[in-house]
Design brief:
CATH class: Alpha Beta
CATH architecture: 3-Layer(aba) Sandwich
Structural class: alpha/beta
Order of helices and strands: EHEHEHEHEHEHHE
Largest sheet: 7 strands, parallel
Low-confidence stretches: none
Strand content: 15-25%
Mean pLDDT: 96
Strand order of the largest sheet: 3-2-1-4-5-6-7
Helix content: 40-55%
Number of strands: 7
Number of domains: 1
Shape: globular
Oligomer: single chain
CATH topology: Rossmann fold
Amino acid sequence: MHPDFSLKDHTILLTGAAGLFGRGIASALAGTGATLIIASRNADNIQLVADEETARGHHVFAEILDQGNELSVLSLRSRIEERHGCIHGLVNNSVLRPMKGANGTVAQWEESMRVNATGVMLMHRVFGKSMADAGRGSIVNIGSIQGVIGPSYELYEGTTMGDLPPDYFFHKGGMLNLTRFYAALYGPHAVRVNYLSPGGFYNNQPESFVKRFSEHTMLNRMADDRDLGGAVVFLLSDASRYITGANLPVDGGYTAK
């Protein structure tokens, strides 16, 4: 491996490591030789991930985090810095999906914003400041193509999937501009902040949806759990040392057509 791509001797914090995107990202990061800390509200799920990666000889540690709770975020930073020192990189991947459709309740919307908007801001404020004080670091925000485009309802015709929730589009779009804000704020302190726009991850969707979505991409397929980790490693490493405030689509060319 070229040394600019190496994360050896780096401590990386990844939120939401057990989900659709997170498990593949966790595997990619663990394989770089970094000390990887994975954090989530679900202790059992992330401990299972940590155990699996540890069994492969990697340095992975599970921590509890309620991202929408400021005291929980501050407590996590204290525990990490006591055990591992200041982190070198943060991957904001955790997401809460309380709204199940366009007519979800206001309470569901507010819970979504607590975790996915306020919580993401807290992660930047708390961990970003620590990296800025240390004079180095990289933050990678896992967004979505749904944060930069509107819904394509025609993809869902004939399925039960088409009742899309507005909160996801709202907070993923907000995450993109929050990325630019913190890139400007922390840039003078050598902390970079970037955004990834994944799209079209295969998750046993109906065959008709998979066919339509695949045909809309340039690669003629949906993504799998190997397709996001490389981009995350790149943006955390010195190989991307002059990239900040950027949005990198990882969507097979979906948004380029």
